[in-house]
Design a protein that fits this description.
The chain has 253 residues and is an alpha+beta fold. The protein folds into three domains: 2-164, Deoxyribonuclease I, Chain A (4-Layer Sandwich); 170-195 and 204-215, no CATH class; 219-252. It is built from eight helices and eleven strands. It has helices spanning 35-51, 80-93, 128-133, 158-161, 178-186, 194-215, 219-239, 244-252, and strands at residues 2-11, 17-30, 56-62, 72-74, 96-97, 100-102, 107-108, 117-119, 122-126, 138-141, 152-155. The longest helix has 22 residues, at 194-215. InterPro entries: Endo/exonu/phosph_ase_sf (IPR036691).
Length: 253
C-alpha cells in the first residue's frame, strides 16, 4: 500500500510557503507459524525493498519471529534458524528497527500451565529514507486485552511537524572550537546505514552549534545591529554629503 499526502507547510528562505508532498509505502506483515512457510514473506520483503528504495517505507505487525533470545521468556523450541532468517532479511532489506516503548513482549500464549511463553513477535521497521526524514519516530506497545498480541501505536516525529531542520551558520566555522567539536562527534561509531549514521551525527551536533551561537549571540541580532549602524551612517552622509569621514564610515559599515 502506498500513500501520498501533504505532510506540513513551512516558509523557505525566500518567505514562500511550501506544501511538502510525501510518498510513503506502508506494509502490514504476517509471518507464517512454520519457518519454511515464513520464507515466502522474507522473499517478498526483499523484493519490496528494491521497489521502495526511493521512497519512505514503513513495515510492521506480526512477523512470528524474534531477532535475539532476549525477546523470549519461557520454554521455547529451537528458534535459532528462525532468528537467523529474520536477521538476514532485516540486513538484506536495509530496514532499521524503530525505537520501542511500553511492554517488552508483544505475544503471550495464555497458557494455564507452567509452560507460559512470552515473545516479542511484533515489530515496526523503517528504511533509511524514513529514518532520515523522521529520526524521532517510535512506537509504543500497549497492554494486551482480549488478543494474545499487544496493540502497537506509532508516534510521529514532532520535530518535523514543527518544521525542525538542521541549521548551520557559516560564521561558526571561524571559531577555534568548531573543528574539535565536529571531530568529537564524527569519530563516534554508529551502527546502521550511511544515511542513518550521518543523520544521527548531525542531530548530535545541533545542540553544540546552538550553544556556540548563543555564546556569540544570535546571528539575526548581529544583523539587526549592523543594519542599524548602516542606517545611522547613511543619515550622517545624507546630512553632510561632502564630509569625507562620514562617507568612509558608510563604506566600512
Amino acid at each position: 500500500m502506498q500513500l501520498k499526502f501533504n505532510l506540513f507547510s513551512y516558509p523557505n528562505g525566500n518567505g514562500m510557503w511550501i506544501m511538502d508532498l510525501l510518498s510513503i509505502a506502508v506494509t502490514v506483515a504476517y509471518g507464517a507459524t512454520e519457518v519454511v512457510d515464513r520464507r515466502e514473506l522474507w522473499n517478498a520483503l526483499e523484493n519490496l525493498a528494491i521497489q521502495c528504495a526511493d521512497i519512505l517505507w514503513l513495515i510492521g505487525e506480526d512477523f512470528n519471529a524474534v531477532c535475539d533470545l532476549s525477546k523470549v521468556c519461557g520454554t521455547s523450541g529451537d528458534i535459532r534458524t528462525a532468528m537467523e532468517d529474520f536477521n538476514a532479511v532485516i540486513q538484506n532489506t536495509g530496514l532499521l528497527p524503530l525505537p520501542m516503548q511500553g511492554e517488552w513482549y508483544t505475544w503471550h500464549n495464555h497458557s494455564a500451565t507452567p509452560r507460559n511463553l512470552w515473545k516479542r513477535l511484533d515489530h515496526m521497521l523503517i528504511n533509511d529514507r524514513g529514518m532520515a526524514r523522521f529520526p524521532n519516530t517510535f512506537y509504543s506497545v500497549l497492554t494486551p486485552r482480549t488478543s494474545d498480541h499487544s496493540p502497537m501505536v506509532l508516534y510521529g516525529d514532532r520535530q518535523q511537524q514543527y518544521g525542525g531542520m538542521f541549521r548551520f551558520d557559516n560564521y561558526l566555522a571561524r571559531s577555534p572550537e568548531f573543528i574539535p567539536s565536529v571531530q568529537n562527534i564524527w569519530q563516534h561509531n554508529i551502527i546502521g546505514t550511511p544515511m542513518y549514521t550521518v543523520t544521527r551525527k548531525l542531530k548530535a551536533l545541533k545542540p553544540i552549534f546552538r550553544e556556540q551561537r548563543r555564546n556569540k549571540r544570535d546571528l539575526s541580532h548581529n544583523v539587526q545591529m549592523a543594519k542599524g549602524f548602516l542606517e545611522a551612517a547613511q543619515l550622517l552622509v545624507s546630512s553632510s554629503r561632502r564630509d569625507e569621514l562620514y562617507i568612509q564610515l558608510e563604506h566600512v559599515v
